[in-house]
Amino acid sequence: MSGNKKDFTNIRIQDMIDTDGIENVEILRKAKETTPARIGIGHIGARYKTTPMLRFVADQAAASDAVFTEVSKEVIKRLGVIEIKTKCKNKNDMITRPDWGRIIEEDQQQILRDKCIPNPQVQIYFGDGLSSPSIEANIPDLFPTIKKGLEHEGVSIGTPFFVRYCRVNTARTIAPLLGAEVACVLIGERPGLITAESMSAYIAYKPHIDMQESEYTVVSNISRYGMPPVEAGEHIVDLILEILAKKKSGVNLKG
Amino acid sequence: MVLKTRLYGKTYEFDSVKQVLAKASELKSGDCLANIAAESKLERVAAKTVLSELTVKELRENPVVPYEADAITRLIQDDLDEEVYRKVQNLSMAELREWILDSRTTGEMITEISKGLTSEVISGVSKLMGNMDLIYAGSKMRITAKCNTTIGEEGVLACRLQPNHPTDDVKGVIASTLEGLSYGAGDAVIGLNPAIDTVDSTIAIWNVLEEIKHKYEIPTQTCVLSHVTTQMEALRRGAKADLCFQSIAGSEKALDAFGVTISMLEEARQMFLEKGSAKGPNVMYFETGQAAELSSDAHFNADQVTMECRCYGLARHYKPFLVNTVVGFMGPEYIYDSKQLLRAGLEDVFNGHLHGLPMGCDACYTNHMPTDQNDIELLSMLLANAGCHFMMGLPQGDDVMLMYQSTGYHDIAAIREITKKRPMKEFEQWLEKRGFWENGHLGRHAGDLSVLL
């Protein structure tokens, strides 16, 4: 028995190749470089060989764990922010009650009133959404980049906080509550097998309870595998400045 | 009409046929979210009991969305074969269920009668079916339709090859397509969900798929699953295209949320018949999935199985080549876990077949459901036994664009081998010629795209 097997989850999917019985391996290698899809993995009978099978279940397990594990209190402490939660009591509520995931109950609203600077131009907050690891993976680079960029332009920023069991539409309650002109929710995306730690930014000008979904400006796929957090942060700063200048967001921004 | 029954000494009474249908439905998180599900298991059985005594006529005359209020209700009612309907209108749901299950009743007989059944009737009878009933009855039904090749022949399990790519990179799409072909995927259709829904991109991808089809002389059809209006514009600009795709829903309001109307679909069909490259006459490809209506708040307090059935009622108007229920894509707030997913897959395929549609199923799940690949492997094997006409084939089941998991190229080959089913005849001959398939299992070149490049 050997316990020394390397961490195969570090291997790029493009480099996972099975050359057994392949007539022209170079052609297959080149084809692999064109897509993150799991091609060129061989077969045994009509089933998967053991290594690609294990890689698949590892990636799926990471995606599933990203949804169902909690963001730890230590992570929130390291970020140095306060925490509130939605009406959901646990992850199961989170996935089955999207309506509760947007409700901030009175006691939690009071925490925000007590602890946050009122009437900022931009209120930024973090939500676990469907990926808990996305917070720790992205916020330490993403938030300071946005904060610095906006402050440099003289834009006032509200007190950041973390919302547990958070859906995007918490913005409809939180922005009016704190009197923010623009809300920017940095929230975990539904994970896929390529990465389980992607995050999106949902930005809206004066969000309110009856707003349209299309009024959000969205930056998605923020992660070290997609749009890196620092680059995404700079992009978000530009978008927020444009939204503040034009006093609209989402599809309306294009018009 | 009696909407009341007694079980274990307790009386259960219901307000409407719509409520009976909802409460008779097997447990789904979406019906709970909509606050219309049965409140206990016994209440569910009481609703099933009441439903079993309702007649075809009573269900027809009580559509879940009123005739005056909804164009899909009107279409389903007006399309009905009145002569067939008159023969079955007085059957109770219990009698209809038993007639379908009777071994003297053939698939052809069921398909004939189905022309007189509204979507509410079909939804109703499925709620009186256990999982094995759905498989037993479903396995009798074969619905054939013709585009370039013919779907639905006896003993065939076809496959949609789904070569999606995060950025629609043409080389990446070709790589996934060729590999899929080498595993025997792609006889139902080679169909890509584009990352970018523009006319230019749709034309570019469609031309690539058509080039592959012609270069290797593959007996199949192609499709780019952008919005129907995008595809129509692509066709106007000279794209080569076989199948016209659109996601549909079971109420006019929900269809509107997709940016689609009934007349738009007819216009698209006519355009593909005239300008498309397929032989036809079946040139439409629809996708559905329980709870699309609830998610756009257009369900009219009807349950998700019944609303899904109304998608099939709409679909059959256009004589499609393929209808595919993407059963596990909507999320756990609508279909929670493996149990609900298996049930929904079996319901949808049975209900689609009972509408006279060539049904496929995207046996799939998202990562925020408490499910994994083992669950859809089970579902895919159940579906093969339930007579499902086609399933999806993706590289190891991982969709790198839509970020969910479905059945893999390997799975399609394995299911064919396990259940002794085959690809479509002319496609099978093509595979054998290339060394991808031999004697009912994968051949020497399976999994080697390099032999095609």
From TrEMBL, chain A:
Key words of the record: Bacterial microcompartment, Cobalamin, Cobalt, Lyase
Gene Ontology CC terms, in alphabetical order: ethanolamine ammonia-lyase complex
Keyword Protease: no
Superkingdom classification of source: Bacteria
Gene Ontology molecular function: any one: ethanolamine ammonia-lyase activity
Biological processes annotated in GO: amino acid metabolic process
Coiled coil stretches, renumbered: none
Protein name from the UniProt record: Ethanolamine ammonia-lyase light chain
Protein's gene: eutC
From TrEMBL, chain B:
Transmembrane segments: none
Pathway where this protein functions: Amine and polyamine degradation; ethanolamine degradation
Residues spanning the signal sequence: none
Amino acids binding adenosylcob(III)alamin: P194, Q246, S295, M401
Binding locations of substrate: R160, L161, Q162, N193, E287, D362
A Pfam family it matches: EutB
Reactions mediated catalytically: ethanolamine = acetaldehyde + NH4(+)
InterPro entries: Aldolase_TIM (IPR013785), EutB (IPR010628), EutB_dom_2_sf (IPR044939), EutB_N_sf (IPR044941)
Cofactor(s) for this UniProt protein: adenosylcob(III)alamin
Predominant place of localization: other
Protein's cellular compartments: Bacterial microcompartment
A GO CC term attached to the entry: ethanolamine degradation polyhedral organelle
GO molecular function: cobalamin binding; ethanolamine ammonia-lyase activity
Catalytic activity, EC: 4.3.1.7
UniProt keyword annotation of Cell membrane present: no
UniProt family annotation: Belongs to the EutB family.
UniProt cross-references to HAMAP family, sorted A to Z: EutB
Function, in words: Catalyzes the deamination of various vicinal amino-alcohols to oxo compounds. Allows this organism to utilize ethanolamine as the sole source of nitrogen and carbon in the presence of vitamin B12.
Subunit structure: The basic unit is a heterodimer which dimerizes to form tetramers. The heterotetramers trimerize; 6 large subunits form a core ring with 6 small subunits projecting outwards.
Entry protein name: Ethanolamine ammonia-lyase large subunit
Gene name of the record: eutB
